[in-house]
Each structure stands twice: as structure tokens, then as C-alpha cells.
Specification:
Blueprint lengths: L17 H12 L3 E4 L4 H13 L4 E5 L6 H14 L4 E3 L3 H11 L8 H20 L4 E3 L16 E4 L5 E4 L7 H10 L51
Parallel strand pairs: 1-2, 1-4, 2-3, 4-6
Antiparallel strand pairs: 5-6
Helix pairs in contact: 1-2, 2-6
Length: 235
């Protein structure tokens, strides 16, 4: 992973569109850029924008070993529609074996420390390998998703990952705006979204939400909102 820290970022208009953020970010990175794809509706929207803009952006995904079947279906649909390869990264098998042999299959529900350990093995460490050698990466983060994401910027230096550029094109979009785009473009989306899952992660750590609940209430529902991050988006 590059250790070069960029001190100057492009100045974006306050009403910059996601497409403008993407184009400016990819240009400013001055090197390889990839989208970290979890196959959420946000990520599918970004893939569609990348293809429309004809940007040279790769796509990688983290297979934690505990994803929903419906998530893999979206991955296949994206490959078929856009004819693009997806680079899959997996946890180190010896680390998963050690964790499950010593602590069982659901240790992440016993404490915040245990949950962070599981997320580190299944997500954070593979992410580090996926980002190695990149000049920038793209995420589907939106400001309204969580109290942990209110301080983000559309373009920012990712100090936790070697100072590479982090591009958040949908940061200012609402959930309704994302779905308006996805529906209008007839994009392939996860079937679980229509079953009450606005936010989808690993199967054991995701549940549907009730009417009126926060969209991320179904992620790690046994924890307080300020703790609901897996470590991929450290600041």
C-alpha cells in the first residue's frame, strides 16, 4: 500500500454530484483506484455510474464466509450485466479456524471486543490486502447512515490505510435518492432489501428492521449505535 500522503485535494462545489466526485477523485488519485463492493444498493449505483463515466476503476469484494446467498446473487448479476471482473478476498483460513475452535461460532455476540476480533479477521485484514498498491478506493458510505459517518467528506485522505485517497461519492445522497436512481436504471439489487433489510452485512449480524427503526438498527442490534462499525472505515 502506498505511504504517500496527499496534502491537496480537488476543490468540489458544495452541490457536487456523485459523478463529479467520482471523476474528480479518480483523477486526483493519480494511480489505481478500486471500489470496495459489498453489493449494497449504494455500491450497485456507483458501479453503474463508473460504467457510464467510463472510468478506469476496478472492483473488489470481501467474502467473509458468512454472507447471505442473496448477496452472491447480486454479484453474479453485476458480472453478467456489466461484464466486469470482481476480485474476491477471503479471510486467512488459519485465523478463522483458530477463532472458531477456541471461541465457537457466535463469539461476536458475547462482547464488543470479540465482535471486533471477528470483524478484523473476516474484513479488516482482507481489506488491507485488497488496498495494497492502490492510490485510492471508493466506498458507498452515506452521511445519514450512521452517527459514526457524519464527519466524513466526499474526498478525504485515508490515514488509517497509508494515506491513500478515499472517495465517498454518495455521501450526501438520501436513501430515497439512491433508490430513485436504482429503480430508474433498473439495477440489480439484493432481494433482502425488499424483505426489511436496508443494510446488509454478514448473515448472523444482520436482521430486518421494523417500520420506523433506523436503517442500521438491524446491524449488530445488540450494540449501541456509536459502536456499529466493523473497522473498515477507521479514521
Amino acid at each position: 500500500m502506498s505511504q504517500q500522503v496527499r496534502r491537496d485535494l480537488p476543490v468540489l462545489p458544495t452541490d457536487a454530484t456523485p459523478q463529479q466526485v467520482l471523476a474528480a477523485g479518480v483523477g486526483a488519485a493519480q494511480g489505481a483506484v478500486k471500489l470496495a463492493c459489498s453489493f449494497s444498493v449504494e455500491d450497485v449505483v456507483i458501479i453503474d455510474m463508473i460504467k457510464e463515466l467510463d472510468l478506469e476503476v476496478g472492483i473488489f469484494a470481501l467474502d467473509t464466509g458468512r454472507l447471505h446467498e442473496e448477496t452472491y446473487e447480486v454479484a453474479e448479476a453485476i458480472t453478467e450485466r456489466y461484464h466486469i471482473p470482481i476480485e474476491w478476498y477471503f479471510p486467512r483460513h488459519e485465523q478463522v479456524e483458530k477463532l472458531e475452535r477456541e471461541k465457537g461460532l457466535f463469539s461476536f455476540r458475547e462482547s464488543l471486543e470479540n465482535r471486533h476480533e471477528c470483524c478484523h479477521i473476516r474484513k479488516v485484514e482482507p481489506l488491507g490486502r485488497a488496498l495494497r498498491g492502490l492510490a485510492g478506493w471508493i466506498t458507498g458510505l452515506r452521511r445519514e447512515q450512521s452517527v459514526t459517518r457524519t464527519g466524513l467528506a466526499p474526498l478525504e485522505i485515508d490515514g488509517a490505510n497509508g494515506g491513500i485517497l478515499k472517495i465517498n461519492p454518495l455521501l450526501e445522497w438520501s436513501e430515497a435518492r439512491v433508490w430513485e436512481y436504482a429503480t430508474g436504471r433498473r439495477l440489480p439489487v439484493n432481494r433482502l432489501h425488499k424483505q426489511g433489510y436496508p443494510s446488509i452485512g454478514c448473515a448472523p449480524c444482520t436482521r430486518p428492521v421494523a417500520a420506523g427503526e433506523h436503517p442500521r438498527a438491524g446491524r449488530w442490534w445488540w450494540e449501541n449505535p456509536e459502536h456499529k462499525e466493523c473497522g473498515l472505515h477507521r479514521r
